[in-house]
Amino acid sequence: MPKLKTKSQKSKKSQQQSEAPTLSLKEQLVQKRKAAQERKEFIGVFTATLFASVLLGILIFPLGGAKVAAGAAAAVLCIALSYKYPRKALWAFLIYMPFAGTVTYSIGGGGVTFQLAKDAFYVPALLALIQYCQSKRLPILLPKELKPILGIMVVISLITLLLVNGFQQLSADRGDDQPILMGLLGLKVLLGYLPLITCAYYLIRSKRELLFLTRLHVVLAIVCCVLALIQYYFLATGRCEGTRYLSGELLFKASLKARCFVGGSLLYTPEEGLIRLPGTFVAPWQWGWFLISNAFFTFATAFNDPSVFRWRPIGLVGMAAVFIMSLVSGQRVALVLVPVVTLLLLVITGQVVKVKRFIPIAAGLALILGVGMIMYPDIVQERVQSFTNRWNSSPPADFITQQAEFTSKEQTGFLGHGLGRATNSARTLGKGVLIETYYPKLFYEIGPLGVLAFLGLVTTLTVITFKSYRSIKDQNLRSFGASFWVFILVISYNTYYYPLDVDPVAIYYWFFAGVILKLPELERQEPQEAEVEQKVKKKRSRTVRLSSNQA
Q1: How many whole angstroms separate alpha carbon 286 and alpha carbon 280?
Q2: How far is CA 252 from the centre of its chain?
Q3: Predicted model pTM
């Protein structure tokens, strides 16, 4: 006797049928021909570009050696393909960015060329997108409400660059100091990734692509956390020495000489209770902010992905991985902010009151973390003790106040000391100062007017994105938007360290602002997509009936 199908099996089967292709045979053939033509075109473009890149590398080899030749060839290939295929380039940009630090030091030896490699995806894709928008008469700067305050910000920055950095350039006996180059790099760091708002808006064209984006970041988070866990295992088992066998001050500073498996400089002196792992990034604190950022993204997938039995559990694994690595990596900021962010998201997105959804995920996460704490109680105790000692010795509020007092005492005018003067990546171009809090750093570089303009810029963006996600009626899309918006809110007014200056926050902040702006349009598209799908189904069923009647 055949077994009767349960209700859940029937619903699953009907769901699979509804997700099956609804195109007619003729339409499927058209799609296949189009895909084949696109593949043929890509192979042709790739072959020609590869040949030109190799030829350039051969010409450069006698002058710069193998590394320079290979780097130049790879750069030309990447730039050409990114300009030709901007959408694919933006996806590659997002995928490559978490591993850029590892590539920089494992392949590039820390060279400046490799540090800028990710922009070989971003800049050509941006230029191609601008040309596309101009040809289609689409707005380039989004959102339009951002134009006035952004204009003020750009004017103040350019005045600072010309008057302050320019005057410094003209002054005598500067030695190796290059104020104009420092200023240009400082301006690039400050506003260079703001166009990612527009890139994200035009990149995400459907709900399907939105889900691809969120799922991609969950996978990236899990992969990076696994690599960082292997890094910790190598250090703990002695395969990598870390900094524990050094002497003097070197015992207490992150060092590139102690690099292990992935990422860049690290600090591993467990005898002194000092562990600061970089994960896949250049420096430990960048890894910490990667974990904080992914607390938002993994949460969004774990609670809101429509794939209940596949991607929500994967999102839960991503959340657990972020929690575990926040503890293992020795990142005090992540150790505090990751659980705080999760609680904040639970309240703001309203997941706490959704018992059926909240309890299984919360129980699963608690089980994973509980087992980890039982298995490694010494690690948990050491990290908590390290955080407590750091808090007692230098409370964040006192630290920020001291930095603000320093920059206010150093202030001599309304334009600051020049763009790039306190930017970490610009120090190789001239004399700079180390200021480890964001808004005091801006105050030092562009003065009080510049700080007010930047605060106006991020506040305007925060308000616009809030209105955008609150206008959404679809519950899943609204929850996605809420998760991303809380990230925008936290980063907009965070002044502890300077995550907006470097990867990954410098990219995620602007990009996900653009994603939030696109959500209302995705919601409007859903009824239209459903209507089109319904018409296709009717057309297909009519074709089937006609063929059966003819038979």
Answers
A1: 9
A2: 29
A3: 0.88
